[in-house]
Amino acid sequence: MAHRKGDEWAAVLAPWRQLAEIAWSAPQVVAHRTARMATGGWPPSARDRREYRRMVTEKGTAFTRAAVASAWAVPQAASLVLTQGLTPVHRTVTANRRRLYRR
């Protein structure tokens, strides 16, 4: 089965798109969470404590998944390794941006 030229470009550009979305979303998430911490008061509310706990656990989970996905993708093309490695981080960061700014 022949591959279309557009499919090849999509595979090459996918990690760049993910990196751009991470670069756009991560600062928004950090700013939102920092502002929430600065204005939240003491002691933190139950909602804030859940968010703080989530901040810590999701990073470990996302980066562990990224490492596993990258390790399994090693025999494949470099752009696919990058895409599979970025996907868990991208998913977490963009989901946080949507969730935090939906409120």
Key features of this structure:
103 residues; mainly alpha; 85% helix
Q: How large a portion of the residues is in β-strands, by DSSP E?
A: under 5%
The best one-word shape is: elongated
Reported for the largest beta sheet, the result is:
none
- The residue fraction in helices comes out at over 70%
Radius of gyration: 17 Å
Instruction: Count the DSSP helices.
Output: 3
The poorly predicted ranges are none
Annotation, overall tally of beta strands? 0
Structural class: mainly alpha
Mean pLDDT: 84
Ends: how far apart?
A: 47 Å
Element order, helices and strands?
HHH
Could you describe the 3D structure shown?
It contains three helices and no strands. It has 103 residues and is mainly alpha-helical. α1 runs parallel beside α3. The chain is elongated and about 55 Å long.
Characterize this entry briefly.
With 103 residues, this protein is mostly helical. Helices cover 85% and strands 0% of the residues.
Question: What's the topology here?
Answer:
Blueprint: H1 5-39, H2 46-73, H3 78-102
